[in-house]
Amino acid sequence: MSDTAPEKGSFKRTLKDLFAGAAGGVAQVLLGQPFDIVKVRLQTTSQYSSALDGATQILKNEGPTAFYKVSIQFGAFHYARRQLSAVNTSPSNPTGQLSYGQYYLSGAFAGIANSVVSGPIEHVRIRLQTQPHGTARLYNGPIDCVRKLSAHNGILNGLYRGEAVTILREAQAYGLWFLTFEWLMNADAQRNHISRDEISQVRVATYGGLAGEALWLGSYPFDVVKSKMQSDGLGAERKYENMRDCFRKTYRGEGLRGFWKGIGPTLLRAMPVSAGTFAV
Q1: DSSP letter (8 states) at residue 280
Q2: Helix or strand run (H / E) with residue 78
Q3: Alpha-carbon distance 29 to 163, whole Å?
């Protein structure tokens, strides 16, 4: 018994340290992330006249959670990366260097964590964007939309409709996002015999932009199916029973082209947005 007591005490201290560190990190993110998001948008688009205008429009058009979307992804990615690095650490790998497969898994973990928030938020946004205008409109705003979706089919089948394909999209998207960025950064450092910290911000932004292209090229069909399911009719007006049914009917009705509609504008937007995200 005397041998196990120190171990338990050490374990408790470790948990306390982890919690304290996590709490500090969360506080920093909550305080700093809105400023970073506005800065990135100002750097990568010309649609805002000032920082105040940018913050106001983001809040109005995307809601307060828009300021924290990137926080979930990066926080979960670095958590998974640290865990895998600890597993990898050995005399032959003292730094715990990750394989590229593990970078993908870390990114996929980040995407799955993000899907818990992004799924219902995007569902509500799609419902509001696709509803009829004027007196025929169905929802008076986001809160009303959440209430009606939940009342009609419950939280899981209503508000979280399309969550399965959202998880697949987010896992694939962010797995490829982080994998591509890490590969490009490591290749640059090895090619030029420099450390990653010495890579210029211009090249970091370029690699971030290319990672954004890879994100969408690898996950866009999932996004199409998600949008179809989340804009589908309710009750008797529903066209798609589930994710598999939506894939099947999209292919039968539109062929492979049906899974790539709208990819052009998406790729045009992805490059500057993703570049700015990694350059921060």
Answers
A1: -
A2: helix 69-88
A3: 26
- Dihedral pair phi/psi, residue 153, rounded to 5°: -130, 10
Residues 6 or more apart whose Cβ sits within 8 Å of residue 242: 164
Q: Supply the pTM of this predicted model.
A: 0.75
- Taking the CB of residue 141, how many other CB atoms lie within 10 A of it? 10
Both tokens assigned to 226: 């998600």
Q: How far apart are CA 254 and CA 217, in angstroms?
A: 19
> With bands split at pLDDT 50, 70 and 90, how would you rate the model's confidence at 240?
very high
DSSP 8-class letter at 97: P
- pLDDT score, position 226: 94
Write the Ramachandran bin of 194: left for phi over 0, alpha for psi from -120 to 50, otherwise beta.
Answer: beta
* Nearest partner of 173 among 216, 144, 211, judged by Cα: 216
Instruction: Write the Ramachandran bin of 25: left for phi over 0, alpha for psi from -120 to 50, otherwise beta.
Output: alpha
Q: Which helix (H) or strand (E) holds 152?
A: helix 142-154
Question: What are the pLDDT digits (tens) for 165-202?
Answer: 999 999 999 999 999 999 999 999 999 999 999 999 99
Structure tokens, 119: 């799924």
Phi, psi dihedral angles at 186 (to 5 degrees)? -65, -40
